[in-house]
Amino acid sequence: MNDHGTPATSTDDDPTLVLLTVEEAARRLRIGRTTCYGLIRSGELESVPVGRLRRVPADAPAAYVTRLRTAHRAA
């Protein structure tokens, strides 16, 4: 329960989210936060700036995994 008496929900499973924090994206990919920032820095994982914040589109982790799988099959 949260402070308002409603059941606490995990934002990792919320299908209505359009943008994820870097930490949420890292949890979805089951990698560390530093590794996730490295993927963003290298351009492998899409992200967008929101003011001074960095956010990852909700579909970007799945797109990254798809590219990894495609590259693995081609090798």
Number of helices: 3
Structural class comes to alpha+beta
Would you list the SSEs in sequence order as H and E? EHHEEH
- Report the helical percentage: 40-55%
Oligomer type: single chain
Low-pLDDT runs: none
The 3D shape can be described as globular
Give the rounded overall mean pLDDT: 89
State the separation between the terminal residues, measured CA to CA: 48 Å
Radius of gyration: 14 Å
Strand order of the largest sheet: 1-3-2
Strand content: 5-15%
What's the story with the biggest beta sheet? 3 strands, antiparallel
Kindly state the number of beta strands. Answer: 3
Q: In brief, what are we looking at here?
A:
By secondary structure, the chain is of the alpha+beta class. The protein contains three helices and three strands. Helices cover 44% and strands 15% of the residues.
Features:
75 residues; alpha+beta; three-stranded antiparallel beta sheet; 3 strands
Helices and strands in order:
Layout: E1 19-21, H1 22-29, H2 33-42, E2 48-50, E3 53-57, H3 60-74
Helix pairs in contact: 1-2, 1-3
